[in-house]
Amino acid sequence: MDLLVKLYDLPDPAPVLKKLRKRGIDVRRALAPEKNLVVDWVRGSFSKAWACETEVAFSRLPITCFIAVDDGTVLGFACYDATCKNFFGPTGVEPDYRRGGVGAALLITSLLAMAADGYAYAIIGGVGPVDYYKKIVDAIEIPRSTPGIYRGMLA
Ligand SMILES: CC(C)(COP(=O)(O)OP(=O)(O)OC[C@H]1O[C@@H](n2cnc3c(N)ncnc32)[C@H](O)[C@@H]1OP(=O)(O)O)[C@@H](O)C(=O)NCCC(=O)NCCS
């Protein structure tokens, strides 16, 4: 299902970003020269479909993909304005790095970028972990949004 998030009422990302920086993890917008590396990593760690969406994020300027990096290695990513305008996602974190704040840092940073672009609300499309989005950004379910825009998608 799809979720709706208020972009004018987001949590402060500073504490989680500071915590990650202490562990040597940076969250930042991806650079164009990193496209192949990031897209290949998304394809290998997640799926071909998410790699396609990440490529679209890299085709925009500024690039609508944030990454988490530890010592030259990408360990998490989040895209927006990739599947549809106003959509957040896809996003993912390497299994060994989960439950440490990386996903939340990528999510809040991306949503703040969407707010800066002028959106008032974001849609998180085709969500898996609904409770995660409810917990971090107080997302609410959009009624009758399954399968939403993904109806009839080739796979
Ligand atoms: C969903 C995902 C991105 C979360 O990344 P993460 O780095 O583990 O998230 P965080 O550590 O920032 O989690 C923040 C909080 O949400 C909670 N949380 C994390 N994953 C959760 C889940 N699947 N369901 C419910 N709560 C979750 C954590 O317990 C944490 O709470 P805490 O701060 O009190 O400990 C990661 O689990 C992932 O890559 N999953 C596979 C891909 C996926 O499903 N992507 C989303 C598609 S819509």
Strand-residue fraction?
Answer: 15-25%
Kindly state the mean pLDDT as a whole number?
97
Q: What hetero molecules are bound to the protein chains?
A: coenzyme A
> Which class best fits the helix and strand makeup?
alpha+beta
Return residue spans where pLDDT drops below 50 for at least 5 consecutive residues.
Answer: none
Write up this protein.
There is one protein chain. The chain is an alpha+beta fold and 155 residues long. It has one domain (3-150): Aminopeptidase (3-Layer(aba) Sandwich), CATH 3.40.630.30. Helices cover 35% and strands 23% of the residues. The protein has 5 helices and 7 strands, in the order βαβααβββαβαβ. It has helices at residues 14-22, 35-45, 48-58, 102-116, 130-137; strands at residues 3-6, 25-29, 65-70, 73-80, 87-93, 121-124, 140-141. Strands 2-3-4-5-6-1-7 form a 7-stranded mixed beta sheet, with helices on both faces. α2 packs antiparallel against α3. It is globular. Coenzyme A (COA) binds at residues 89-93, 98-104, 127-129, 131-132, 135-136.
